[in-house]
Amino acid sequence: MMDNQAIGASLAHMRRYYRITQDELAARLGVSRQAVSRWETGAGLPDVAQLMRLSKIYGVTVDDILRGNGAAVARHGTILADDAREPRRVVVIGAGRWGCFLAWYAARIGHQVTLVGRRESENFRALRISRTSGCLTLPESITLSDDMTCASEADFLLISVPAQQLAALAGQLAEMELRGRTIVLCMKGVEASTGRRLTQVITDALDHSNEAVVWVGPGHAEEFLRGVPNCMVIDSAGEMAKQAVIRAFSSDLIRFYYGRDLVGSEIGAAAKNVIGIAAGMLDGLGLTSLKGALMSRGTREVARLIVAMGGDAASASGLCHLGDYEATLFSPHSRNRAFGECWVRGERFGSLAEGYATVRALRSLGKSHGVELPICETVYRILYEGTDARRSLDRLFARSLKDEF
After folding, report:
1. 59, 79 contact by CB (below 8 A)
2. Cα–Cα distance, 237 to 330 (Å, whole number)
3. How far apart are the C-alpha atoms of 380 and 366, rounded to whole Å?
4. Phi, psi (5° rounding) for residue 349?
5. Dihedral pair phi/psi, residue 373, rounded to 5°
6. Within its chain, how far is the Cα of 52 from the centroid?
7. What is the rounded CA–CA span in Å between residue 39 and residue 46?
8. pLDDT tens for residues 314-371?
9. Is the pLDDT confidence value at 402 over 60?
10. Any idea which of 73-82, 187-196, 372-381 has the lowest mean pLDDT?
11. Are 265 and 315 in contact (CB under 8 A)?
12. Nearest to 248 by CA among 115, 77, 102, 131
């Protein structure tokens, strides 16, 4: 056994390896932050029960800890989960297609679920009667409500509303004085009027004791309901919040990866909707073969913006963006792709796709950060300034193919 200081240094290394704060670790262990600090400085040692708990959290043996073998954490990709998943109280706000799927999914894996919709919505009133929403039927175990106050009792609050409506919803939640809730944002976008990322919209409005998490990546309700699995990403500024969400919602149907770049995860996820609209425009003009160039250039363009905003360029090549291209640029279920196709054909789509407002936000962010975003600029001009789609896209790809790097 090594001396206390060596053991403490090993414990500090293990904690930093997973980018957990002392406060987060203390909360998980049920001790004070000062106790964690004493261990890591060698002023004290965890007791036997705490050592066992630490070994389980870090995925190492007690012997590894006592020998100061901090490198042992490298054998494991993530902190090990707690015991088998316990049923939790889940409230889903937003009863659209994705919100209904989230409620169905949470109930499928054993949680107690309430789905909250708007009282004035005709679609929600119909849902309460039929319990059917397009491609799925909600089981009787799911409570349907138009009273959002149930959010104050939720272990996990899942939000699936249009991104431009999030600020108004956050204001309503703020009036409820939520404390210590885990709020999972299950949508993609950037606030068009301010350029704020969605986690910023939530954290600006609510008490700091609440944790904001994003759930992004590829997946359509229609595919999941057919039993087709996929991989998605959970990201947050708080490591423990990520752990809790992944532990609560992972299953054979959705495998979650740990995001390590909240800025990149949010911007990458939002931007792929704009690339999806561009892809639909190409489809509508009979230029589908240019999607390869669109994907290549789109990834690089979004990576530049992510870096300028303080994120990691690699995120643009991850599941939040490039990994979501198949579901967004090619799938018949993609609303953004279908919106772009209808736009250039002059056909009615029914409602605006999320990427419509997002492109305005990204264009502003590009200008404020000094980043050139030719695809976003082209889509913006077609949608907002009425420029000819074919000529605009021809100019875009003549430039892109000439100056690829």
Report:
1. yes
2. 32
3. 12
4. -105, -25
5. -125, 75
6. 32
7. 7
8. 999 999 999 999 999 999 999 999 999 999 999 998 877 999 999 999 999 999 999 9
9. no
10. 73-82
11. yes
12. 102
Q: Which residues contact 245 (CB under 8 A, 6 or more apart)?
A: 156, 182, 184, 213, 215, 234, 236, 256
Return the half-sphere exposure (C-beta side, CA atoms, 13 A cut-off) of residue 60: 23
- HSE at residue 287, side-chain half, CA atoms within 13 A, is 22
Q: pTM for this one?
A: 0.80
What is the spatial distance between Cα 369 and Cα 383, in angstroms, rounded to a whole number? 22
Residues above pLDDT 90, as percent of the chain: 72
Among 2-11, 182-191, 224-233, which stretch is predicted with the lowest mean pLDDT?
A: 2-11
Condensed to tens digits (0 to 9), the pLDDT of residues 217-253 reads: 999 999 999 899 999 999 999 888 998 899 899 998 9
167, 201 contact by CB (below 8 A):
yes
Distance CA 328, CA 282 (A): 13
- Residues tagged active-site: 272
* Span between the terminal Cα atoms of the chain, in Å: 55
Q: Kindly give, in sequence order, each residue whose CB lies less than 8 Å from that of residue 249, ignoring residues fewer than 6 positions away.
A: 105, 106, 109, 156, 215, 256
pLDDT bin (cut points 50, 70, 90) of residue 165 is very high
Count the Cβ atoms, other than its own, within 10 Å of residue 353: 24
CA atoms within 13 A on the CB side of 347: 11
The band of 83, judged by pLDDT with boundaries at 50, 70 and 90, is: very low
Tokens (6 digits) for 289: 């073969």
Burial class of 134 by CB neighbour count within 10 A (0 to 12, 13 to 18, 19+): middle
Q: How is residue 173 written in tokens?
A: 């939640």
Residue type at position 209:
S
Distance CA 187, CA 198 (A): 9
